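Field reference: sequence -> structure
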Amino acid sequence: MSEPDEQVNEPVVDAELETLRRDLEAARLELDTTRNTLTAITTERDGLQLAQLKADVARENGLPAGVLAGKDRTELEAHADALKEWQKAQPVRTGPKRQARSGFASYDSPPSGSAQDRAAAAIKHAF
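Structure field:
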């Protein structure tokens, strides 16, 4: 009598086993999706934290955040210090006064450029 019982139970066990395999595969896919989502969120969070840290260090040192390089506060502060030292070593530039937005030089500014450049600019603005 054990043979007929085994035959009856075998299809039920196979069906249950197949259901468990599908459930396991679905769980693996969900786990992979969750891991990928977690990795993306972690990467975004780290980027936002670094951007905020750069903004803080830049503000504290009077520099634009975009020029700072580093992965943590120590590196950012060291780079800010190096940039400030470099900035101090640069000569102070004094150039001609800026022209008015219309393109015409103001009365108190000396003409700039060669005579040919000044003539070309005068002709350009005459029309």
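Note: The chain has a mean pLDDT of 84.
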